[in-house]
Write a structure and sequence with these properties.
28% helix, 15 helices, 5-stranded mixed barrel, globular, 22 strands, 8-stranded mixed sheet
Length: 604
């Protein structure tokens, strides 16, 4: 979906060069301003840093508890922890700090209130405010006339929803000056600077979830979404802005996540997001579902995805972000489900995955067939097998297991990791005056899954060791290594408490790739990684806030230095790292999701 950028900023973000072009990874020196996301250059970075200052003073365990969704020790005192979204509370706090700075551009940051709305650490005053929404809500029995109001959108959360208040931007600044806090509304499918009509649906701790009824004053960035389901389906959040501005938003979300994890991280340069070759028609996996209700005839059961903001299913006949093959498979899966709907008791989740098969024998063995000679097909069986193609490589895995779902960008994605490792190998060799020598001779692929990154990078190392705690994944990875001729790869079942015990190479000659699930890594693994001390670490993340939390854990252990600053720890680790590069990738256009690759290099 090509779109015309509305500003020079959007144009600058629209088309970064391929990963092999050094310009594509050039770090930004200032934050990009955009009506979509809150704008601001260094001021917003400072606001984010100020919002995270209390984290910088806490220990690593307290930080992790705070960033995982609750302050340590407060669960019994604060019922909000059971249902409130901490990322939303952080977004409101950041919004108020930004408003205060806008109203006090020359003021000392020390004059800013520690908390807006109630005295710092006054839990009773906080509870009185957060339990007293000023409007009725649909789920609390409010009448339509009581639940519908007009609000102003000031910011977007990391999930792409608008943060709105009844106060305009000027009114918000006045509240900030007085140290007060507005009641906030979370409104999906909105943009910064818009005035919208909403319906209050559900009250949370200090804010309200609301449905968008209409846009009164539009942002200049708003476009008509091409999908007829957008605004109702919860699958896509960003179809109402052009793709160039989606990339700006995602870059800013990476910057914000880092700054909120640690104020020092606000100084780090984040490269422009590398775009997906396909803006629609890219997704190689879809999982529509349906629920069976006693009062719904089988022919009327909705098969699709969650209705935005509700626990209901929206019937989706066709999903535009799926590949042509997956969309054809989804049509067949819907027909099959409808034909046997009477046999279901509680509903089900359908699976449609794109696969690659021999042209003349769809059920044939792909082992000895070049990837270029395979053709697209789909798999509907959860117990079936999928063959994915990444460049000249082939990967086989169970249809129900994890694999990246945008094959159009995977060659660039894996290629960037390979290029980063080669770049640092050359720089380290040059620094050691070791001409034509490889400093990095061994690669460890932790959280290796089916072996994607280890196999993609294998030709540049003497030995690749992949580690997983899943027997099925290890079996797939070893089979994939053999199929691709990666004879130097060995994928091993690891003990989570002794993950590096099977790595025989010296840390000085070893690079480690980690690609954990969305929830991030865990303290035990990170502490083992620090203790092992590899020369280079490449951290690949689909959950950027969790990645930022993990990096902050390493900082708090004294293992990361930012501009020469390290955390004051009693037992400093032998290995200390610099954050060498931060490169986001857009694997999921039209959604808020962004992948991020951080390279850490040991300071020797």
């Amino acid at each position: 979906m090509p779109s015309t950028p509305t500003s020079p900023l959007a144009a600058s973000a629209a088309g970064p060069a391929p990963p092999s072009d050094s310009a594509s990874a050039a770090p930004a020196t200032k934050r990009e301003a955009s009506p979509a996301t809150g704008g601001g250059t260094e001021d917003q970075a400072e606001a984010a840093a100020a919002a995270a200052a209390d984290l910088h003073q806490a220990g690593p365990d307290q930080k992790r508890a705070r960033l995982q969704g609750g302050r340590a020790g407060n669960k019994k005192k604060h019922p909000r922890k059971a249902n409130a979204d901490e990322t939303m509370l952080d977004a409101i706090e950041l919004l108020m700090r930004s408003a205060w700075r806008e109203a006090n551009p020359d003021a000392d940051a020390q004059a800013m209130p520690l908390v807006f709305g109630w005295p710092a650490n006054d839990k009773q005053a906080e509870a009185e405010f957060c339990r007293a929404p000023p409007v009725a809500s649909k789920l609390s029995g409010g009448l339509p006339s009581e639940c519908e109001i007009s609000v102003y959108v000031h910011e977007l959360t990391e999930r792409g929803a608008g943060v709105a208040t009844r106060e305009s931007a000027d009114g918000l600044r006045q509240l900030a000056l007085a140290g007060k806090r507005p009641w906030a509304f979370v409104v999906p499918f909105t943009l910064r600077g818009e005035k919208v009509r909403v319906r209050s649906v559900r009250h949370e701790w200090g804010y309200t979830q609301a449905d968008l009824l209409g846009v009164i004053e539009k942002s200049p960035l708003r476009i008509d979404a091409p999908c007829r389901y957008f605004g109702q389906c919860s699958g896509c959040q960003l179809q109402h802005i052009g793709y160039a501005d989606q990339l700006v938003f995602k870059r800013q979300m990476v910057e914000r996540a880092l700054a909120q994890a640690n104020p020092l991280f606000a100084k780090l340069g984040v490269a422009r997001v590398i775009r997906s070759p396909l803006e629609f028609g890219y997704r190689t996996k879809l999982t529509p579902h349906f629920d069976i209700r006693k009062d719904t005839p089988p022919d009327n059961v909705a098969i699709g995805f969650a209705l935005a903001g509700q626990r209901k299913v929206l019937d989706i006949e066709d999903c535009m972000i799926g590949t042509d093959t997956v969309r054809a498979g989804a049509k067949k899966a819907r027909e099959d489900a409808r034909a046997k709907m009477a046999s279901y008791k509680r509903g089900a989740t359908l699976l449609i995955r794109e696969t690659n098969v021999p042209r003349d024998h769809p059920q044939g063995d792909v082992t000895d067939i070049p990837a270029s000679e395979l053709v697209k097909d789909y798999v509907l069986d959860h117990k079936g097998w999928v063959t994915d193609v990444v460049g000249k490589l082939k990967f086989r895995y169970p249809a129900s297991s994890f694999f990246q779902n945008n094959s159009s960008i995977l060659p660039a994605f894996t290629g960037y990791v390979r290029d980063e490792l080669n770049r640092w190998n050359q720089r380290l060799a040059d620094a050691a005056s070791e001409e034509n020598a490889r400093v990095l001779t061994h690669l460890v692929d932790a959280y290796c899954g089916s072996g994607l990154f280890g196999i993609a990078c294998h030709s540049d190392f003497q030995k690749v060791v992949g580690i997983e705690i899943s027997n099925e994944s290890i079996s797939c990875a070893n089979n994939n290594a053999r199929m691709n001729g990666a004879d130097n790869c060995d994928f091993l079942l690891g003990d989570a408490s002794k993950i590096f015990d099977k790595v025989e190479a010296s840390p000085r000659n070893t690079a480690v790739i980690i690609d954990p699930p969305r929830k991030g890594s865990n303290p035990d693994f990170l502490d083992q990684l620090i203790a092992y001390g590899p020369r280079v670490i490449v951290y690949i993340a689909c959950g950027v806030p969790a990645q930022a939390r993990d990096l902050n854990h390493m900082f708090c252990r004294g293992a990361i230095s930012i501009d020469g600053t390290t955390a004051p720890v009693e037992n400093r680790p032998a290995s200390v790292y610099s954050l060498a590069s931060i490169q986001p990738f857009d694997l999921f256009p039209q959604t808020y999701h962004v992948e991020n690759i951080v390279t850490l290099v040991r300071q020797d």
